[in-house]
Amino acid sequence: MFLEVIVALVVGVLTLWTYAFLKNYIKLKNIPAPTVWPIIGTALEFKDPEESMYIFPNLMKRLKSKTLRMHMGFRTVLVTADYTLIERVLGSPTLTHKTYFHFIPWLGHGLFTSSGDKWRKARKLITPTFHFKILEQFLDVFNSNGVILINKLKNEVGNTSVEVQTLMSRCTLDIICETAMGLSVNAQTEESSEYAKCIHDITYLVNARAFTPLYNIEWIYKRTKMHKDEQAILKVLHGHTDSVIKTRRLKLQEEADKKEVGRVAENEDDFGRKKKVPFLDMLLQSTIDGRPLNDKELRDEVSTFMFAGHDTTSVAMSFTLFAIANHPEVQKKAFDELYNIFGSDKERMCTTTDLNEMKYLEMVIKESLRMYPSAPLFSRTVSENLDYNGTVIPPGIPILFLPYSIHHDPDHFPDPEKFDPERFSPENYDGKKPFSFIPFSAGPRNCLGQKYAMMEMKCLLSMILRQFELKPASPVHKLELRSAIILKSLTGIKIQFAERKY
Ligand code: HEM
User: Fold this and answer.
1) How many distinct structural domains can be found in the chain?
2) From the CA of 102, how far away is ligand 1's center (Å)?
C-alpha cells in the first residue's frame, strides 16, 4: 500500500510538471534554454552558488542568445539582457506587474511590491514627496551624518585594509531613518543597535528565501526556521515603525493646534529652526481615494523606504570608493574638481550648488553603477500577451532583467571591464539608448529615489575625498561579486584611508 501511494505521488508530480512544462515550452520553444530535466528543470545550472554572478552571462554566451528560457521547478522564467525586450517591457506603461512575494511579509503592499491600480495610486501619491525642493531640506541630514562617518574613518587611518561596506551601511541607515521617519536610530554611534541588526538580518533572510526555490511554496516556507526568525525580526521592525507613526501623528496634531493659536510659524520647529519634514509626515498629511492612509499603509511605505533607500546607496558608495582607490588618475580628477569648489576648506558643509558642480564625481558614480549595479537583477511578470521577435510571451511569465549583463555588453559599452568615467561625459554619452544603462531601472516604474540617492552619494563621497586620500588595500584586495537582491562582494570591499595633505 505504502509503495502504491509513493508511486501514485511520483506519477502525479511528474504529470503535473510535464503539463506545466509543455504549456509554456510550446509557446516559448524558440527562446534558447539549457538542458531541462524533469522536476528540477534547469536547476543544475545553479549548482555553484559562488559563480552566481556569471551563470547567466556565461549561459548567454554559450547559447548565443541575450534572452534565455529557464525552468525553475514548475515555473518558466525568461532572463534577459536584450535591449529590445528590456525597452519593450520597462518602457511600457502597462507591463508594470511584479510578483515579489518574498518581500511581502516585510514591505506589505507598498510602492515597491504592489501592482496595478494600487501601485499607480501609490506612485502618484508618493512622487511629489521626492520633489527637489523637498530633497534640498535633507541635505542637512546627509551633511551631519557625513561628519559622524568622517570621524569614524579618521580612526581607520593607518589601517592597511578597511572593510567599508558596514561603515557605509550604518551611515545610510541613519540617514534613511531620519529622512523617512524623522528620527535617527544611531546605527553609526551605537554599534549594538537592535534596529540596525534587524534591518541587516531581514535583508539577508529575504535574499536567502528568494534564492531557495522550495521556499517559494508558502506552505513549506511557513514550516521553516527561517520563517520563525523572520517573524521575530519583523516584530521588532514593525513594532518600531508603528510606534514612530503613532508619535508623529500626535506631534502633527499638536503642531496643528499650536498653528491655530499662532504660536509657531509653519516652516519652523519649536526652536525657530527651518523644519525638515520627513517622508512619513508628508504621507500622514496625504489622502488616497479621498481618505487618509491607514497605519498599515503608512508602515508599508516607510518599510519600503528602509529597504529601497539604504543598502542600495551604501553598496553603490562602497564600490565607488573601491574604484576610486584603485584608479589614481580618476581620484586626481575628482579631487581637483572638489578643490575648485571648496578650496582647501575640508570642513565646509555641502550646499545644493556645490552638488550641482560635481559633474565629474557624478560621472564616476555612474561608471561605478555601470560596473557594479546595486540591484543586479529585478523582474516584471507579463500581464498581457507580449510579442518578442515573433514569439508571443503569455501572461504570467516572469521576466528577469540583468543590469549587470547589459552594462557589461560590449555592444553597448566597449571594453566593458575598463573603469572609465569618461563614458558618461556629455560628449560621449548621448542617452539615446536609455535602456542600456539601468542601475535605477527605467520607464514608468523606475527608481523613485534616484535624485535623493545621487545627492546623498555626492555629498558623502565628496566629504570623504576632501578629508582622505584613498589607496588600494594591502594586501591587494580582490572583489568576489555575488548576485543577490543587492549586489555583494563576498570578500568585503576593502581599501585604505590616508589623511589628505593640501
Ligand atoms: C544607488 C542607489 C539606488 C539604486 C541603485 C536603486 C535602484 C532601484 C531599482 C533598480 C529599482 C527598480 C526595482 C524593480 O523594478 O524591482 C528601484 C525602485 C525603487 N527605488 Fe531605488 N535605488 C536606489 C536608491 C533609492 C533610494 C535612496 C530610495 C528612497 C529613498 C529608493 C526608492 C525606490 C522606490 C520607492 C522604488 C520603487 C518604485 C516603483 O516601483 O514605483 N531607491 N530602485
Assistant:
1) 1
2) 17
